[in-house]
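pinging the channel bc i need a second pair of eyes. not urgent but kinda urgent?? the chain im working w is below, pasted from the shared doc
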Amino acid sequence: MAPFNFDGYNAQVRPAVALAVALGAMLAAGAAAAPKPHAERAQSGDVEAVFSYTYDRAKFRFGRQRLTIKRLGERRFSARLRKPPLGGFNAQPARYFEHRPSVSISDLDGDGEPEVVLDLYWGGAHCCWYTQIYRYVDGRAGYRTNVHIWGNFSYVLADLEHDGRQELLTRDNRFSYAFSSFADSRWPVRILRYRQGGMTIVTRQYASEIRRDATALWHEAMGRKKTRSNQGVIAAWAADQCMLGRCTQAFTTIERLSRTGRIHGERTRVAYERRLRAFLARTGYR
């Protein structure tokens, strides 16, 4: 299995802070005007999707979001978007400010029937990205929806097995703020698989990707000066090591680094190691 290019992956799966900066710039430049209608279109084989919405630049707000799906020329789904999950502010097309479409069609599970994928952002200053996947179901049901919340990160699609089925690569959002500020936090790789309308975490099946991620995290942690915390980076590195079956060795290394002053941050050596062990156990890494 060829290694996945994590340089490109890291460039695409980034914190929502980048979007917040772009949004602020657009707001500052905005002027009073009527909401502008937009329509994004995607097509693959016999499936066509249209995502329409308006954008009020003066009020910095999206509205009238609707997704319509046609299959074999017949409309099988059409509905307005609901409010974002978990109390989000305003559903937004995730890639609008990147001038890229937020709706796409991809056969995620390789069964010959493509899914419609709608990537959204719910309008907070820092969070969150989420995706609605529309899967065709035979009969009158038409399309059923699966919603997956990513958090502070988006994802990228990659056919890691080269078998025509896509994996979804992201990062574990639970590490945000767990050991340092968000800016100093880092996150272990997370790989998911979409099958039969549901998501499954399959990260441990891809040791080469985990090793590549761990190597990058290690170099970053060891390269940080003492004026900046590296406890969040080491925590993500330890999670990668645990997924590779090297938890014991990882904590031996962490203890040695702590005693020699190579791990630095807000927590003392003992408090940091105790919290890290408990956190990795609670999140399923140990």
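so The longest strand covers residues 61-71. and The mean pLDDT is 87. — does that match what u expected or am i reading it wrong
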